[in-house]
Amino acid sequence: MKTTIDWPRRFSELQVFSRQERVGTLVHESQYVFGYSESAPRPCSLTMPVRIESYVRGALHPVFEMNLPEGFLRRYISERLVRYTKVNDMLFLALQGDRGIGHLNYRSGLDFGQADTVSMDDLLTTRRGEGLFTYLLDRYGLTHTLSGMQPKLLVQTDRTTLSYPNCIVKTEDAEFPGLVTNEYLCMSLARECGLAVPDHYLSSGRDLFIIDRFDVFQNQKLGFEDFCSLMGLPGEDRYSRSYETAAKVLNIYRLPQPDFKSFFRQIVFSCAIGNGDAHLKNFGLLYDPTSTEIRPRLSPVYDLTCTLAYEHLDKQLALTLNGRRDFPNKTGLMAFGRALGIRNPGAVVDEVVTLIRDGLKHHDLADEVPEVIKIIDRQAGYTGSESASGVRVPARQRSKRKKYR
């Protein structure tokens, strides 16, 4: 990354590209205005068809806001750049450039040059703890944006031919000890349960979780939009709907029946591992933006953790299911599955629960995180039961605290 940048006072206009083709201009004065170019080759979003009239909003359009940093990375960028330029959403889009998740790129005149690659072997074997992530942060922290609250970065390793970052590197902080190990465990269990999972890795020091980005096919970036964007919602509303409402996205964009089955399986899995943070931004659709007939499909799973392992977090679902936020048992999940049109949803619940509990018995981390494994095993047992007992939180005890994504 270049050490000196000629920062403008503020970014008020950005050119928006899909891959390498310009689609329009985004302007911010009193409002955010996006207008397609006369020769726009394709829409920038499934929710924004090409038209002559501009798209005008008081807040940033959801498809542009989708990848903006939150939490750790937002604070880091703000603290580093507040003395040089106006820190706002347009700045974060300018920093994203052509490195963000999905097919959209932003050109502003900024040029960081080509970042050096990082050795994947170093990421996996170096026991530098916080020092390694700090090194990566100094190297990559101002060259992209990435949504989420957890400390994480897009990094380019020596195992890629891409000209932009090929994987996401996450670490943890004192508030969520063992988070990267927790996520690695849950993601590996998801793969055993037949869910589509990107390749992922855990460093030998158990302080870095690395996951390949899944929005690239044959060296070209695919379109990706999370469910907040697809529902026209800002990211702050990620906890404001239901899983039934989320399922409507599959109908609206005419996903094939196998994707409905995969979506149901994801919900069952999240409930069975005690993941109370499966919010709208943790589901998404992938598509080829250049296709003459866009056919979205459900994206691979990501951001899976057992939130029940953290006592200071509430014991509820991120969204309501069957009108409640309590973790459902088999009966509740079967009702949801039938509403989705899933044949024999009870068999899906039984299969997922069995695969999780079997996977826990022989997992490589069984001796390292026994408490997390115990919690998941207990929660999976409840999910597969039809009893009335289980995770039930009286209203007066329910915390409104949001999770860490």
Please tag this protein with its features.
405 residues, 14% strand, Phosphatidylinositol 3-kinase Catalytic Subunit, Chain A, Domain 5, 12 helices, single chain, alpha+beta, 4-stranded antiparallel beta sheet, 5-stranded antiparallel beta sheet
Question: Could you characterize what this model shows?
Answer:
One of its GO terms (molecular function) is protein serine/threonine kinase activity. Residues 14-106 form the HipA N-terminal subdomain domain. Keywords: Kinase, Transferase. By secondary structure, this protein is an alpha+beta fold. The chain has a domain at 223-397: Phosphatidylinositol 3-kinase Catalytic Subunit, Chain A, Domain 5 (Orthogonal Bundle). 31% of the residues lie in helices and 14% in strands. The chain has twelve helices and 14 strands. A five-stranded antiparallel sheet has the order 4-3-2-1-5, with helices on one face. It has a four-stranded antiparallel sheet with strand order 6-7-9-8, sandwiched between helices. The longest helix is centred in the middle third of the chain and has 17 residues, at 257-273. Mean pLDDT is 92; it is low at 389-401.
